[in-house]
């Protein structure tokens, strides 16, 4: 076994192809996949074992009603939500109950991040009202002191608005020339 690993490792070291280098980096056995497959596997952000879900209108409606009526009892745990769904609702099959509980758990996790469209329950409405009635301590539109540069001051002077209250001119520092991208030169004409 050890000898086979030594031989395999020595063949790995001699290989220069990109897919073989990627398999060494990821400690994968050399699979006969194209380079694009390897790059897709490396760059994909989702977990490959997760599959998409097909959810019918019945499952979605039932989950939304369940959340609207029983939000305080529901949790982020599927097993708990499954028990609650079977207690409070008459669901004809175990499979449908599990689908409803799964989608309910999914929606509960989304609700934790923020309001969910189509679901209206008391806590969410109170949160929205609180945000609507919020008055900031300092206004973002405070016009008591406005700072402008010298060019803007010259513009206001030319428009006969030099006597505005609360407007003060400030010297603007020029950015160093090196910080901008250098010109590309003449561009080729398009055909």
Automatic annotation (TrEMBL):
InterPro entries: Ribosomal_eS17, Ribosomal_eS17_CS, Ribosomal_eS17_sf. Signal peptide: none annotated. GO terms for molecular function: structural constituent of ribosome. The keyword Kinase does not apply. Keywords: Ribonucleoprotein, Ribosomal protein. This is 40S ribosomal protein S17. PROSITE patterns: RIBOSOMAL_S17E. It comes from the Eukaryota. One of its GO terms (biological process) is translation. Pfam families: Ribosomal_S17e. One of its GO terms (cellular component) is ribosome. It comes from Linnemannia schmuckeri. Belongs to the eukaryotic ribosomal protein eS17 family.
């Amino acid at each position: 076994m050890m000898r086979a690993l030594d031989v395999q490792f020595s063949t790995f070291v001699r290989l220069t192809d990109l897919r073989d280098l990627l398999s060494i980096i990821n400690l994968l056995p050399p699979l006969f996949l194209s380079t694009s497959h390897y790059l897709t596997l490396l760059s994909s952000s989702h977990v490959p074992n997760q599959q998409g879900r097909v959810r019918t209108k019945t499952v979605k409606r039932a989950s939304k009603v369940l959340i609207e009526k029983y939000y305080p009892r529901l949790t982020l745990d599927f097993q708990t939500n499954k028990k609650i769904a079977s207690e409070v609702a008459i669901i004809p099959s175990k499979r449908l109950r599990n689908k409803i509980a799964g989608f309910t758990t999914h929606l509960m996790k989304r609700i934790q991040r923020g309001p969910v469209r189509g679901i209206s329950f008391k806590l969410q409405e109170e949160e929205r009202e609180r945000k609507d009635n919020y008055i900031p301590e300092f206004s973002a539109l405070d016009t008591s002191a406005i700072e402008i540069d010298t060019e803007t001051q010259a513009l206001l002077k030319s428009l006969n608005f030099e006597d505005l209250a609360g407007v003060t001119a400030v010297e603007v520092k020029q950015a160093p020339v090196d910080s901008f991208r250098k010109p590309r030169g003449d561009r080729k004409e398009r055909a």
